[in-house]
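Structure request: TetR/AcrR family transcriptional regulator, Actinomadura alba.
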Amino acid sequence: MSQATMGLRELKKQQTRQAISDHATRLFLERGFDDVTIAEVAAAAQVAKMTVTNYFPRKEDLALDLHDQFVEGLARTVAEREPGESALAALRRAYLAAVARHDPVIGFSGADFARMVTSSQALLARLREFHEQREEALALVLAEESGTDTHDVRARTAAAQLGGAHRVLFNETLRRTLRGERDQEIAAALTAAVGTAFDLLEPALGDYAVRAAAPA
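Returned structure:
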C-alpha cells in the first residue's frame, strides 16, 4: 500500500471522527448529554453505531473529545522544558500561553458547553478521571526526569500539587464561564490566578526537576 493511500485513509478517518464528534456535540447541546443515545449520534453522522463506538468507546468521550491533549499535556510540557527550567516554571509558562490563546483544553468552552458538562454527572465523573490520569502521567515523567522509580514519593507529591493547581484553575475557568463572563474577562482573571497558584508552589517546587543546562 502506497504512502499516498495510507495518507488518504488516515485523512478519511480523521474526517469521520471529527464529523461524529461535531454531530454529537450539536445534539448534546440541543438536548443535554444524558438524553442523547449513541444510536442517535450515529444516525445524525450517517454512520453505523459500531463506527461511533470504534472511534469513541465511551459515550462521554464524544463530548469530552480532547482526552489525549488533556491527559498528556502536563507530562509533555515537563518532558520538553528548556535547559535550566524547572517543572514548575515550564508548567506556569505553558498555562499562561494557554490562557492567552483561550485554549479549550484548559476550560475555554463557552457557556452552553459548560452548562452541558456540569448538568451531567456522567461527564463530571469522566472529567475527574481525566484529572487523575493527567496527574499519573505527570508523576511518571517527573520520576523519570529526576532519575527515581515510578513510586517515588517526591515525584508523586509534586504531581499531586501541580495537578491540583491545574484542577483549581480549570474549575475557576468553568465557574466564570457559567457566570457569563467573556473569554477576555476570564483570561484576565486567570492570569492573576495562575500567579497566585504557582507562587504558592514556588517554595516547595521552585528548584525541583530543573533540567540540566546544555553542555557548553
